[in-house]
Amino acid sequence: MSEAGSTVPFDFSSYGGEIDDLATRGLADAAGAEGIRTAMARVTGRAEEVQASRLSANEQNLIACGPGCADCCRVNVTVLLPEAIAIAAYLEEIGKGDETNAITMRVADTAARVRWMEDDERIRAGVACPFLDGRGWCAIYPVRPLTCRALSSTDPEQCRRALAAHCSDEEETIVVNIFQKFLMEGTFRALATAMERAGLDTTGRELCRSVTRCLLDPRLADDFLDGKRIRFPES
Question: Is the pLDDT of residue 153 over 90?
Answer without folding.
Answer: no
